[in-house]
Design brief:
The structure is a single chain. The chain has 2 domains: 318 residues, Alpha-Beta Barrel (TIM Barrel); 137 residues, Dihydropteroate synthase-like (TIM Barrel), CATH 3.20.20. Helices cover 42% and strands 13% of the residues. The strands form 3 sheets. The chain has an 8-stranded parallel beta sheet with strand order 1-8-7-6-5-4-3-2. Helix 6 links the parallel strand 2 and strand 3. Helix 5 runs parallel beside helix 6. It starts with a helix and ends with a helix.
């Protein structure tokens, strides 16, 4: 299926919220347990992904309701079906089964509707949520270098989930509700690894969730920085979901449509939550707001997130009929880098200032501070360079008396905690591959790698370069 041709010709309608619909069934603990888990030692109510195994009839009914409303794409019931999120329920061993079963369930219903309406094929998107942990921030304010999950563990969790979804027959993978770009980069890395191993690429759709009206993700990135950071994935579509209702999302979606070279996806909430955490936007009011997205040619895929139902989605069908989808424009061929903010280096850029005082080979003071584990003072050196106009920070830990790989990880984790420093892109500087790789696993932005060598031959050079690209 050529999705590029489809999205150039018309707007696809995505389904709405799964969780909202599940809540309407008022399921009990017994429903979540089923026969298979009736003696499970902990409470399972609330583990919606488990319902694909214990109440597949409910999940199938929800899929069917959205398809009957006219949705072109349904998402699998797998938003939290990963080993990291399933730790809360002690169900890590069931992750593969959850995803495989969910994908097959959605595939079955979608194919049934496609057979009924061959002129309107229905597609399945594998829902890949953000997990309940963050790779770029510490959960401990007193220990900013600490991470509750590593990039490698995040990648393994995503890979397990994606492999099952792909085997189950999904048409695309939705890396959605991204609040931490480094988590998303781990998901992208996993998808690329699977594609390389299988020889088959599954289209990716990437969707960020903004944390507030400042227009940044929870991990602090601007929209421009986020787009730059994930652009190596070459996603089918990129956009926004959750966070806001359509009216509140509109200005940010306009920014995405303006600066992103990819097709645009949007699935906002049914307004903002009320005092009870519920969503009050009616299908009609939401459709009126969504109409602006469509009339202004901002989207290629439009759906709903929290609080939306088949009644909301049904209102979209007439709105998208015969309407012109968004036409993405290629970005100018400039150098795009990012920290929390984007840096664009174009022919009009006179010169770029790179701060090189966080380099143990070039600064005796910095080397001494790292040896003494005086990271706070070492961070002050980074901060002073940014204050003095550095647009990129070079970080080098190559010293015979240092554990360079660990020190690179420690310092970059600490640096990420200071937004005044983390706003600029990084140059990860080392002659050792393992140190370069450690640095890439800590940075949510798009960095410069300095450097890889041809001394071991072109094949090794290209292998390293390809892996650097996969890290983003």
């Amino acid at each position: 299926m050529n999705f590029n041709e489809i999205l150039q010709s018309h707007i696809l309608v995505l389904d709405g919220a799964m969780g909202t619909m599940i809540q309407r069934y008022k399921l009990t603990e017994a429903d979540f347990r089923g026969e298979q888990f009736k003696d499970f030692p902990i409470m399972l109510k609330g583990n919606n992904d488990l319902l694909s195994l214990t109440r597949p009839d409910v999940i199938e009914e929800i899929h069917r309701a959205y398809l009957e409303a006219g949705a072109d794409i349904i998402e699998t019931n797998t938003f939290n079906a990963n080993a990291i999120s399933m730790q809360d329920y002690k169900m890590e061993s069931l992750v593969y089964a959850m995803n495989l079963t969910s994908a097959r369930l959605a595939r079955k219903v979608a194919d049934e509707f496609s057979e009924k309406t061959p002129d309107k094929p229905r597609f399945v998107a594998g829902s890949v949520g953000p997990t309940n942990k963050t790779t770029s921030m510490s959960p401990d304010v007193d220990n900013p270098m600490y991470r509750s999950v590593t990039f490698d563990r995040m990648k393994r969790a995503y890979k397990e989930q994606m492999e099952a979804l792909i085997k189950g027959g999904v048409d695309m993978l939705f890396i959605e509700t991204v609040f931490d770009t480094l988590n998303a980069k781990a998901a992208i890395f996993a998808a690329k690894e699977i594609a390389e191993e299988t020889g088959k690429e599954t289209p990716l759709v990437i969707s960020a969730s903004l944390s507030d009206k400042a227009g940044r993700t929870l991990s602090g990135q601007t929209l421009g920085a986020f787009i730059t950071s994930v652009s190596h994935a070459q996603p089918l579509a990129l956009g926004l979901n959750c966070s806001f209702g359509p009216k509140e999302m509109l200005p940010y979606l306009k920014d995405v449509a303006r600066i992103s070279p990819f097709f645009v996806v949007a699935f906002p909430n049914a307004g903002l939550p009320n005092q009870l955490g519920e969503y009050d936007e009616t299908p009609k009011r939401m459709a009126d707001a969504i109409k602006v997205f469509i009339d202004d040619e901002l989207v290629n895929i439009i759906g709903g997130c929290c609080g939306t139902t088949p009644n909301h989605i049904a209102r979209y069908i007439d709105l998208v009929k015969d309407k012109t989808p968004h036409r993405p424009s290629p970005r100018p061929r400039h150098l795009y880098l990012s920290g929390l903010e984007e840096l664009v280096v174009s022919p009009e850029t006179n010169f770029v200032v790179i701060g090189e005082r966080c380099n143990v080979a070039g600064s005796r003071k910095f080397l001494r501070l790292i040896r003494e584990k005086n990271y706070a003072e070492a961070l002050n050196i980074a901060r002073k360079q940014v204050e003095d106009g550095a647009q990129i920070l070079d970080i080098n830990m190559d010293d015979a008396l240092l554990d360079s790989q660990q020190e690179m990880t420690n310092f970059l984790n600490l640096l990420a905690s200071d937004p005044d420093v983390a706003k600029v892109p990084l140059m990860i500087d080392s002659s050792k591959w393992e140190v370069l790789e450690a640095g890439l696993k800590c940075t949510q932005g798009k960095s410069i790698v300095n450097s890889i060598s041809l001394k071991n031959g072109e094949a090794e050079f290209l292998k390293a370069a390809k892996k650097i690209q996969a890290y983003g």
